[in-house]
Fold each of these.
Amino acid sequence: MAAVTAREAEDWLIGKIAHRLGVADDEVSREVYFDELDLDSTEALILAGEMENWLGFELSTTTLWYHPTVKDLAAYIAEESSQRAAAA
Amino acid sequence: MRPPRELTPPVVRPFRQAGPGGRTVYVVHPGALAAQVYRGLADALPEGDGLTVLDLSGVAEYAQAALNGGRAATTVQDLADGLAAHLEPEQGPYTLAGWSFGGVLAHAMTRSLPAGRLPGSLVLLDSIAPVDAYKQPDDALEPALLLGWFAMYLGAKRDRAVGVDPAALAGRGTDEGLPLVLDAAVAAGALAADTPLPGLRKLYDTYVDGLLRNNRLTAPYRPGPAPLPLVLVKAERGLLPEDASLGWESLAARGLTVRPCPGDHYTMLARPDALAVLAPLLHAA
């Protein structure tokens, strides 16, 4: 699978968050902290499962703690994805 | 930059302070539902009684295990000893209770408390005894049973009953059964209509890993007889609704009382008709 870029990961995350909040994509900031979104643990796990399915690999449980914004998480995903694509 | 959020919440969660000389009810909570579920129980207790939840979500080596494949690097007795250290020194009477796997831990706590500090009895809320006849190897947990429990859990999380016909799940594997749970949860309004199956699968796998974690902690554990009377509260639609005592009689050297309670394994903690049963029992224990 081709590596996911940071831009693609950002767009994916912002699309999901905007959908849940019922707002347009451009109303969601890349700097937003996930814990400001009022996602409960059920929603967070469902979103994580959907994202892992999209990426094709699992994310560790502390990922959101170390990368708590859309921008940080997307950068991490891009790096992880490119390492996996290079190793494949 | 602001500091990152807390990775684990506190273990000791006081929901209501006891009045002068009043009773404090301690409930051992193994997670699955947020500790906030006890708000209603705290309010239902008689005036002057307090409620403190000992929340295993705050014990990292236990809570993280549900997210990391269901293997916790600890033991039942170590967890129980850690919880017992959180019981306040005597400031009046207290009740000890535990919900689900929390009952197993509460029972283990009574074994490490000095006789002078034991409460009058131990209240077990739909807990299955950690005895050989009720221990199951991991692969003996049928997907149909787990999917049924998962539907119950989803319903409690969202305060909507998720009705899945057990006959429809019978004999199905996880891959075939989970879409039925998804359909029922969407129909009940417990999940958004566009909830993707891989997202629900992650939630289900985490739920099952939490159960497996408890199963694996229980497997090597050898409990002793309880040094105090046991009161088992069985939910009408509990984990094993057909079973009379959930295995506790062999540990009940000082007696066992079984009381029925409305609701299922999860909703028994919040339904007003269930709280009307639980509150006086906890006050009297």
Amino acid sequence: MVKMIICVVAYLILAPLIGGLLAGIDRKISARMQGRVGPSILQPFYDVLKLLEKEKITVNRVQDFYIACFFLFVIVTGCMFFAGQSLLMVMFTLTLASVFLIVAAFSSNSPYAQVGAEREMLQMMAYEPMVLIACVGFYMYTGSFDVYDIMETPHMPVVYLCGIFVGFVFILTIKFRKAPFDLSMSHHAHQELVGGLKTEFSGSTLAMVEAAHWYENVFLLGMVFLFFSNGEISGIIVGLVVCLAAYFLEILIGNSFARMKWQVALNSSWLVALILGGCNLFALIFIG
Amino acid sequence: MSTILFLIGFPLLVAIVLLVLKEDRARDVVVKASAAVIAAAAIYFVARNVGSGEEFYVVPHAETIGTVMMAIEVCLALVIIVLGIQKKRYLAPVLSIIQTPLMIWFELKEGHHIDVEYAMYIDRLGMIMVLIVGIVGSLIAVFATGYMKDFQAHQKGKDRRPWFFFLIFLFLAAMFGLVMSNNLIWMYFFWEITSLVSFFMIGYNGLFHKEEEEDKIATRNAFRALVMNLGGGLGFAIGIVLLGMNFETLELSNMILLGQMGQPVFIVAMFLAFAGITKSAQMPFNSWLLGAMVAPTPVSALLHSSTMVKAGVFLILKLAPVLSGNLAGTMVYLVGGITFLMASFAAISQSNAKRVLAYSTVANLGLIVTCGGIGTPAAVWAGTLLLIFHAITKSLLFLCVGTAEHHIGSRDIEDMDGLFDRMPKLAACMLIGIAGMFLAPFGMLISKWATMVTFVDAGNPLLILIICFGSAATAFYWSKWMGKLAAIVANRDNVETTVHGSESFVHVTLTCLVVLVCICFPFVSKTMIVPYLAGKTVFGQTIDKLPLENSNMMVMVIMVAVLVLLFAFFFGRTKKRIVPIYMAGVNQGDNLTFEDSMFQPKPVSLRNWYMESYFGEFKMNVIGVVTTSVVILGFIGMVVGALIGYGGM
């Protein structure tokens, strides 16, 4: 119980700091890859603080409420995860949060936001099977959906879940909103959809979307970490290193590709889920 | 016993009264009052029996009742034959000519010697069905009083509402009978009655009309539904004959007990489950349910989503203990699983709200069927939860769409944008209903979660993949509908003032029920489902591990409460200045038009994705129908082949 409270409080306080720093590092590395100097590592924090001081405007009476709910439930998702709750419950709560974001975009009835929302739904449909298969994989290997139980396994789950791990890293590109699958919105200016999903969000509302993204990224890296935890210090070190490596890989992918069509996102994610995830599940049952 | 008689007899009596009552006001009063009485009787009945759990009833004059039923069956067969010949549709009469004599021969020749001790019985699963039929059914009847006034106003030709309400109440009586029958011949009788009511309801605008007023599609779809359900009925009849000839019993409870003792009753169960599959519109028979959407919306809500199609899954869940781990069970879960996946995909390509609801119904029934086929206590637990949540949520959604259609003139989801401005209350109910279908922490998601855990525990990778992909598709089609409703479109008039009081009353009540059941489902599980599973004629042992832990259930309940409070206190309040949306600088200021390249104002129009090339209805149906047909033919063929080979069981 004490462990649970410490973890949750740590997540609440540290996640935005780590998430923001990672975003700053992302921008720095990306800039270097593109031959630019790039902004300060603390730039994401300056951006968000500036957003908070913008004029208070909105396009309708309900949009900001939906975004607040999105923010709240992203945080709840992370808290559940770090409190050691059931993985499936964590994922379903994340879906709830995502639907709030989509509904917020729809509510503006703005062309750019709505096309972004449609693409966001498509992305959800693309990554969801792989995410669920990952949860099931953990359960089949460890006999429990609970995060704390999974962390106590004597061997690193990744040994038996290697297919699922690769598949999960694949769909992380969608979740981190990196090219080639940054269909619904991205940080870059060079896109056809203006801000996509977030076109109509501004000021403190947009700040909330950004902060939610930091919270979500830390939680997602927590999922990556879970593949390597074995209840020992070695697992923690390997896990953290792999998390950083995965993050770097996503930055690299993001800078190496142009945005692709939505068909590619759906086809490839589902194929990966079916082949890597599916075969891994069959293997797990075969091994018993 | 007297309450049972009342539950069946009273709706029957009301039905006959309504058939002769031609006056609007009087009909309203009778329908509303008797709906209240039926709901109260159902609640009273369950409250009194829930403590003891299982009750068996010796029905007095069972012989006479049986004979009367037989006579009615013959009359109904004659009706089908005459109507079929009149409308030049001969398959239904042929099926009738096969199965009615088969049943009569069996009852007179063989069934006569078989002693049926308890013709009726009730257990907690039956009680859940009684509550659903009693409460949801009566609410829909009340809704229909207002709805059918608007419906009639849109129709030419004579007022057939007495016939409509007669059928509704007749149906309620038959459903009560069905869920409480232990004598399979009685259950078969009620089963056929519900099939016929469904047939008449689908053909409401066609069967008895003059040539020029007839809605040809209604007639065609009615016969399609009838043929498929008669086919299922034939399976039911064969099951009964096999059971009686080989095991000398006609009681459902005895059949389960025999199965527990290791007797090969799964062969019988296979035929009964086949009947369940047709009734629940599983692939390859799903087309009848899609066609049934031509019926008035209260019928879709009552028969084709919340109760009649549930009779199929009810029977399959009852049979679950004898389906676990054998050929029959494998057939059932394969059919259910494939149906769930294909119907969920097909729903993406639909823009007609009723068809989306229909596909979603087929898909969710598929999940329940799969649970029954797996046949472990945990699976039945999950299936029962699905059954409860689906009945309430889906009837709410159907009724919302029905009302919306009469007021915005369309049932197309694309025409529902900005419904929040035009019909705020209705849109709120609809949104809650949709959330209830696929989002945590609401009922359907919770039960789907439980289903997933049972699939994993059953160690079946195929089913795991099916539910993972199916869930992703489910979230897609619901959230795009939700988005359409939530869009705030400027300058829309409120058209909600003309909604009948009875309709909004039912919307609000059902919405409250959706939320309420989410909050008290751990209680329902503890007092109804878990004790049911431990029953002597079910699994006979207490379930050791529920698919969901208690702590998880509590978290879900708390989340429901938090969501309700958030919406109650913060929704729609803002101090910010409202500004126009971004349209690349050419917004004309009203958010509805932009300036085009010829400097002319052009209206904005936004449409959802349907992904026809991926999830086209035809393609999904072909794949689903072919694979499930192969499964059913293969498995039944195997069993029949073995039977012939060994010369009996």
Amino acid sequence: MQVLRPQSWHEALAARSELPGATPVAGGTDVMVAMKLRHFRPEVLLDLSRVSGSERYRIGPDSVHCGPRVCHTTVAERLHRQLPGLALAAGSVGSRQVRNRGTIGGNLGTASPAGDLHPMLLAAGADVELSSVRGSRWVPADGFYRDGGGTVLGADELITAVRVPLAAGPQRFQKIGRRQGLVKSLCSFALTLDRGQRRIRAAVGAYGAAPVRLLAAEQLIEESRVLYGAGTLPAALVAEFGRLAATATTPVEEGAEAGYRRRALAVLAARNLTQAWAMFLAEGHDGHHRDGQRQDP
Amino acid sequence: MTAQGIGTSPARTDGPAKVSGTFVYSSDLSAEDMVWAATLRSPHPSALIRSIDTTAALKFPGVLDVITHADIPGRKLFGQMKVDQPVLAEDRVRHHGEAVAVVAAVDLETARAAAGLVHVDYDVRPPVTDAATALDAASDPVHPDGNLVAHTRIRRGAAQSGELPAADVVVRGSYSLGMQDQAFLGTESGLAVPTGDGGVELHIATQWLHVDQEQVALCLGLPPDKVVLKHAGVGGAFGAREDLSLHVHACLLALRLNRPVKMVYTRTESFFGHVHRHPAELHYEHGATSDGRLLYVRADIVLDGGAYASSSPAIAGNAATHAVGPYAVPHVQVDARAVYTNNPPCGAMRGFGTVQPCFAYESQMDRLAAALGMHPVEFRQRNALREGASLPTGQVLDSPAPVAELLERLRGLPLPAADPAQPAHVARGVGYAACLKNIGFSEGFDDYSTARVRLEVVDGALLATVSSAAAEVGQGVVGIQRQIVATELGVHRIEVRQEDSRFGTAGPSSASRQTYVTGGAVREACRRVRADVLALLHESGAELPSPSWQLHEGAVVDDAGRPVARLAALLGGRVIERTAEFHHRKTFPLDPETGQGNSSMQFGFAAHRAVVEVDRELGLVKVIDLAIAQDVGRAINPEAVAGQLRGGTVQGVGLALLEEIELDGGRVLNPSFAGYLLPTMADVPPVRVEILERADPHAPYGLRGIGELPSISATPAVAAAVRAATGIDLDRVPIRPDHLLAGLPDPAQQ
């Protein structure tokens, strides 16, 4: 096995271009596990962990610009004010050790259906920068994941940055599994409300072959115009939102567990909509979404 | 109280090394010129083996040797109670993951890769995967002598004449439990080293060196003195190290290659490398009077023993003798059977046949209490065993049995405050359960222990050395021996030696017995040393010392505690060394027809209270408060006792909510810690521990074995709490989310 260790993006992209079959690896929380447990034997590993600066982030006026090696712990602990939803998702990943190793770029790159960040990157409207020796392009998260699994990342491309808009209202993320942590999620759900635009974005992860934006469920809420009011959400509307969320896509494995996952997703969607709306009403102004850190079941 | 003596909680000497990662586990061993071996296992639960072709594996670069059943020089089968398990599969495989061939190579990766090149031609057969089916006369026999491994009957009171009395209140229920795994963190591992004289030394993580040594020698066809087993660092046991795993494979390869052979199972392989807890189906009928007195119990218990017998006969015995629980019942009819199937073999695990009936009888107790309109604790207390009461075997409890008091303690503990912000979909429930468990081997087995104590002056200071072959499996028996020596000999410098199989047996670190039995042997050896010291004192010209004089703080002290002589001065250059065996009091086999007999040396008692919150929409359970009360007789090391009580409780919570080896047609679906879910720190609240010390006059220091009790009643307590929260009549553990959602509207449907 050959291991390439580029020190810069210039070197990394050149190596990627020359050896498109090489497996990029950053934190190793997917690749190394596959090598150990699933007999995955890449001929060439492209180790990106020495690319300088790729672990840094920059907070701009509208968004946070993350190098792809920003790890889950950093997102959870240093960006929770700017990106409360993504911080919740990052803080829910695996164990402390996994959060210290696993990166935002790696999560996107392997696009594992179980990846915890995906639905919130969709709900937050993140963009992904894909670069190659040919140049760079920005792809919205919506266009990054392929329907049946995988991503649009080209054979000569690497993820060089992720841009996540600052929260413009309440954000919620929740996932469920058989135990409190360190377990494969049965489904996850992310939701953002945009206070100024009166918009909702919602997405589901750890469910189908790919994370999915819940466009029909979003449309239901937006067309109802409830976000322009200040009252309780109608129970029927919340229930319908949950139902639409649960039927937008199908669990990757049908069988005994599929029925449970479907109904659990409906519950998560309805519950988180209600909670986000309560936060929406409770917050007098934008900015500090302290309640975003709450993770009530 | 003696400093560092019994009743104190000295720090564990292995603690810092285990916490910092420097402790040497069996998987860390190495030797010069060492090679590695890996095992090929059956992908089928049931198949005939037409042929095994090792040619390709042997040709693989780096491969040194391949062994199959044909290479086993001695007895080709092993088994502690019934010799029925092949060292390597011969003409058929009887369970998924059965070992078929072992490959030795220059490194582990090569050995594992080459194991995949051993070609086995299987004739796949339909497996027997259900215990009830296995008992059907028409079922395929898993072994030539049929599928019934053991059947223990208890007939007490009117049941002896075949008629159970009529009762005011009758409650019937059927219960089942999934297959739990011991899930120790240190997978099976060991190092076999040829001794150059045709013999072999095996460094192994085990619970009982001597029984392993006996079996390994037989299978290798070597005289016993050519096979030495030595303790290697154990990463947890819980019963999973009672049977042989890689022992014979590693030794045989070491002898054939004349090089040290190391084996370490992967986590996945470990799920196939040891026996599990028996899944069970239990049918119960309880009769009670209208004033809440238990009148009779009828129980039919079927334990799925899987492909080989392992400890099934003793486990069926325990399931029968413990079928009623810690309650006094005049009329008892129990049948407990263990059967062969093509599921993974099941055997010893913490609780050893008492966990399964406890889930059933405690569920029944709650149902009876409800039927009688009584509080579950009050109903249990009314029927609780007490000293002097008789068990279903007729054995009379001749030491304290404070079952009612344990429950009272738990009931008196404050409940967690209600959360005013609790959402409507969260329901809270409280559950209680109690249990009893026999300590030590039962039914006539003399599981004695041997200890040697040496007292001398080294470098001007007293030194005591205590030796035994007791397996330190994490329970703290090394420290226990030190504490007993400190108490008995009043010495501060104490060395504990873990002896190998050439030393006298200590019996196993199982059945909650090691502190009792090896502790008893150490105490006896110390007392003989003290008698020698007193004799020496007399020889040195002192007046005749009273045999009641003690050794304390480096001196011989008289009955008033006054120092009579300094020990160091008295000993001078002399060495006093004494060896003692400790045999617990005699037990007796059960009558095969009625199950009557004084079968156990001691019983322990424990009870749990669990408080849960159930998310009614998601079917998820969160345990928010847990408490255990246990009578430990005498806490030799209170902190270690509390640790055992907490750990066992968590294991019981695991069985209630998470832990299950999932099977499909005999195949294991989840052999990993990603699929087999243990509770993590986030899943269990701090466990409150209430320790009672009601001395057993028959036991050393009055102590009771403690290790298994906490894992037994935790499971039904959690199940009871979930029932109380939801009103759902749960009859199976682990409880799964869909059990809790059955019948509720599905929000994903319109």
